[in-house]
């Protein structure tokens, strides 16, 4: 596995691999089975697999955990090697965003709701870094987790709007056996928070089951989901919503392809999760 740290180095490498089918997995490191499942899909579909590890300062708010975000460099490299990654790109913040950096990529509508309310600068940071990475790597396919569903839609939107010639592939969310979605931030959870954290996925699962069993009224389903999520004290729900899976519009009645979105706080730690569900035929 090659490791490249400079932008110039990556550009030279890319020119030497003009005819390869490149699969790309952008990450912020602290790799877990969720990231590895993306890498495995890229490995299956593409002749050359590129992974980037870059803790992107632009997507963290001023009060967020940028400086304490986990950076287990050596074990991440080892995991990439074992997963058959061809190239690991680890740019430095100084070179990626030089002092006179002035450009931002922004998806105006989708970025403003749900996660965008709690984290107003977050998606502009994501869209800017992913644009730069896609321009550098020029992959045929790039792999993103359903775990960050709104992020996936925002990325699909700018890739479509800016005519970027990369197919965005959605990969399923990988979960612990009790339902908690894997996340690099789960390692911050205390033992008692860890037990509480499963309530978020349990609430979403209840919502999915309710819709599948024919319930239609979003307000009622959402209330039940909230009851499940907050049965135990210590978890604050920011939102639990039933939305159109294509544009994240909140729905009053279950219909079509839906995504159930959830965000919760456990002390300082913020968790997000979601599940997709289709309305049963009789609706
Ligand atoms: P991050 O390192 O958090 O920026 O995540 C890098 C990529 O891994 C993103 O596309 C995430 O959606 C994806 N990812 C994170 N957690 C999971 C998970 N539990 N299952 C599947 N994909 C995930």
Give a written overview of the molecule.
The protein is 37% helix and 20% strand. β3 (48-53), α3 (73-82) and β4 (87-89) form a beta-alpha-beta unit. The protein has helices at residues 7-16, 33-45, 73-82, 93-96, 115-118, 122-137, 149-161, 191-212, 218-229, and strands at 2-4, 22-27, 48-53, 87-89, 141-145, 167-171, 236-244, 257-266, 269-278. It has nine helices and nine strands. With 283 residues, the chain is α/β, with parallel strands linked by helices. 35% of the residues are buried. The chain binds adenosine monophosphate. Adenosine monophosphate (AMP) binds at residues 27-28, 34-35, 37-38, 144-145, 147-148, 171, 173-174, 181-184.
Secondary structure blueprint with pairings:
Blueprint: E1 2-4, H1 7-16, E2 22-27, H2 33-45, E3 48-53, H3 73-82, E4 87-89, H4 93-96, H5 115-118, H6 122-137, E5 141-145, H7 149-161, E6 167-171, H8 191-212, H9 218-229, E7 236-244, E8 257-266, E9 269-278
Parallel strand pairs: 1-4, 2-3, 2-5, 3-4, 5-6
Antiparallel strand pairs: 7-8, 8-9
The structure holds adenosine monophosphate.
Adenosine monophosphate binds next to helix 2 and strand 5.
């Amino acid at each position: 596995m090659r490791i490249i740290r400079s932008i110039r180095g990556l550009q030279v490498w890319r020119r030497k691999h003009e005819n390869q089918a490149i699969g790309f997995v952008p990450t912020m490191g602290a790799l877990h089975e969720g990231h590895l499942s993306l890498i495995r899909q890229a490995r299956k579909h593409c002749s050359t697999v590129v992974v980037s590890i870059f803790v992107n300062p632009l997507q963290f708010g001023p009060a967020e955990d940028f400086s304490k975000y986990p950076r287990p460099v050596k074990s991440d490299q080892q995991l990439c090697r074992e997963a058959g990654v061809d190239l690991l790109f680890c740019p430095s913040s100084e070179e990626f965003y030089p002092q006179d950096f002035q450009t931002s990529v922004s998806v105006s509508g989708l970025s403003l709701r749900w996660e965008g309310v709690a984290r107003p600068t977050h998606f502009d940071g994501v869209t800017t870094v992913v644009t730069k990475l896609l321009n550098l790597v020029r992959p045929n396919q790039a792999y993103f987790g359903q775990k960050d569903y709104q992020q996936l839609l925002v990325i699909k939107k700018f890739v479509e709007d800016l005519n970027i010639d990369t197919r965005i592939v959605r990969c399923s969310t990988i979960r612990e056996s009790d339902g908690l979605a894997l996340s690099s931030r789960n390692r911050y959870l205390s033992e008692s928070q860890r037990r509480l954290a499963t309530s978020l996925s349990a609430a979403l699962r209840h919502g999915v089951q309710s819709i599948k069993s024919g319930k239609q009224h979003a307000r009622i389903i959402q209330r039940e989901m909230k009851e499940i999520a907050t049965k135990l004290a210590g978890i604050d729900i920011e939102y639990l919503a039933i939305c159109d899976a294509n544009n994240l519009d909140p729905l009053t009645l279950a219909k079509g392809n839906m995504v159930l979105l959830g965000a919760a706080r456990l002390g300082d730690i913020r968790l997000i999760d979601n599940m997709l569900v289709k309305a049963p035929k009789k609706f």
